[in-house]
Amino acid sequence: MGKGDKKTKRGKINRGTFGARRPRIKKKPSIETKISVDKKAIVKQ
Fold it and tell me: Does residue 18 or residue 27 have the better pLDDT?
């Protein structure tokens, strides 16, 4: 139950793999992607 064990979190870190014990962290979308830069505010005159 250590670095050599495939089923433990420490073993997954040692091997550099992912699984149920150590899922991949998904990146959150940045603020820039939420607000589209192409659409500019229309100025009322």
Answer: 18
